[in-house]
Amino acid sequence: MHRLILLLLLALALPAQAEGFITRLLNKPVPGGVAVLDLGMQGPAPRVRYRDKPVLVVKEDGKRWIAIVGIPLTVEPGVQTVTVERNGAPRTQDFQISSRKYREQRITLKNQRQVDPNPEDLKRIERELDEQTAAYRQFSESQPSNLLFDKPVNGPLSSPFGLRRFFNGQERNPHSGLDFAVPAGTVVKAPADGRVMLTGNYFFNGNTIFIDHGQGLVSMFCHLSKIEVKVGDAILRGDALGRVGSTGRATGSHLHWNISLNDVRIDPSIFIGQYKR
Ligand SMILES: [Zn+2]
């Protein structure tokens, strides 16, 4: 009898199925992180939506469907829900978000206009935001070539994702990506295959490239001194995209890299296997 209870407890303590590599790499269910959801093994790819946006779904280890969901920085720890649809019958699936602390950062800018843009700047910023939001919201059906990304440049990380930022003492949006401290002119390489969705010169982001890696997984590279690709170009993992610079709101040469999933900016360190709690 006791042995039976022991076996039962042991069975409860073990996960139903062993997690695959992608799940272990990407499942960081915190605000600004990623939740990997097991969708079971049956049938064709289910369609998954989170906050009314389509979600990346891939097959793990050739057998199990998983959803890879971007979690907004603004989400409170607790229960979140996706809808899963197969054969036209949607159902909901809950998952749990735990907490993560993000530090503060204070930055001094010489150009006060980058902290308090004038009315004309604000018009420009709004136009650029619309353009960039539209890029993030595109959803192509192609499968990402790899989910363990290569670092786009070889260099030390300077600012992590999610820092609460104060520019000249005023709080602005938290840091939406990862910064690498590398000299101007360093080649920026594609972390995975993709297609160039958008390029531009923006008020805050400077010279910028958007790459669609498939199914709403998007990379954005900012502050470039040079853009060496054009919209529509097919990109292979490792291809040169442009050069590091300090255009836009930047205090010096660095690469700023955003990753977006289901139109949510998440911590890119997860995708290069360097996430720290
Ligand atoms: Zn940055």
Automatic annotation (TrEMBL):
One of its GO terms (molecular function) is metalloendopeptidase activity. Residues 174-268 form the M23ase beta-sheet core domain. The keyword Iron does not apply. InterPro entries: Cell_wall_metabolism_enzyme (IPR050570), Dup_hybrid_motif (IPR011055), M23ase_b-sheet_dom (IPR016047), Peptidase_M23_N (IPR040487). SUPFAM superfamilies: Duplicated hybrid motif. Gene3D superfamilies: Glucose Permease (Domain IIA), Peptidoglycan hydrolase domains. This is Murein DD-endopeptidase MepM/ murein hydrolase activator NlpD. It comes from the Bacteria. Keywords: Hydrolase, Signal. Residues 1-18 form the signal peptide. Residues 27-99 form the Peptidase family M23 N-terminal domain. It holds the Pfam family Peptidase_M23.
